Amino acid sequence: MSRGLTILLPTLNEVSALPNVVNALPIDILEYQGWSPNILVADGRSTDGTQEIASKLGLEIIVQGPAAGKGFGMREAFARFLDSDDEVLVMLDADGTYNPKEITRLLKHLTSGEYDVVIGSRLRGSIEPGAMSRFNWIGNHILTWTAVALYRIFVSDICTGYWAFKREAIEKMQLNSKSFEIEAEMFTSCANEGLRMGEVPISYAARIGESKLGSVGDGVKILRKLLVRRFFPRPVNRV
Length: 239
Fold this sequence. Notes:
seven-stranded mixed beta sheet
């Protein structure tokens, strides 16, 4: 019997990248391995035709509610996943930076090891020239070292956008992030809930289209989230 798998693609004005990402998904291999993949697009109210392209591709779409920010969209998508019967969720950004074929590597590590969550590490893998600026490379390392020091759980890439979760992990995570700090909060929640985390090296390519990340400002939000959740393990406000 096949196992339900949600492939979550967060989008915000990714009309140029989304078709390439979807076409590169290893659906045949996943089905051969016993998975039943369902593709879910969590769209942040794109204005460039992303929603129309997703519809043409036959994808299920969540259009984010009135509140703006990746964190809101991810939380809505997690809630939709929990309303389904799927057992595992894999998320990757739909901007062309992550290789969809590497889904199989994350799933293998998730299901063959004693893990509840597996991340794809860019900083242990291969980064295409120009895919990550020197400034962002340094910032990612600083934030990752800070996370490891605060929570005493090793990961090598706190800001990665490539994650695989068992259903029980998403049920336990408690999140209130609004924006790009969502990945850091997913780590803090996994740590606070005692979830077992593993990782695999992945490749990272130059994105298609304009970057949404605001460097310094988003880095400050991520650092603040790491600190706040260290001392307040449960989110106070979930709005």
